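Today's session is about reading a structure prediction critically. Students often jump straight to the picture, but the first step is always the sequence itself: look for stretches that repeat, for charged clusters, for runs of hydrophobic residues. Only then move on to the predicted structure, which in these notes is written as discrete structure tokens rather than atom positions. Here is the chain we will use throughout the hour.
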Amino acid sequence: MRKGYAFAKGKRGAVIPSPGKTRITIMLDDDVIEHFRESAEAEGIGYQTKINAVLRAATLPAKGRTNVEKPITEAALRKILREELREAE
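Below is the predicted structure for this chain, in token form.
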């Protein structure tokens, strides 16, 4: 390990940017956060992903709300991978 590092040309922020996403700070009530954390954990997804899905559904026209694509859960992904691996054998 070197004794000194030069950070003069360093940049702040995420190492790998997420295209199409913007980092914000938002204040939400504790009970709202707890609801989304519990709900997301039951589905096997992150609570921020769950909040994003609910907000996205709220922005869609009324007739299109049934077509909201849910994020894939870890269990579903494992099932798909097992099926693909079985077919590849």
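Discussion point for the tutorial: The mean pLDDT is 84.
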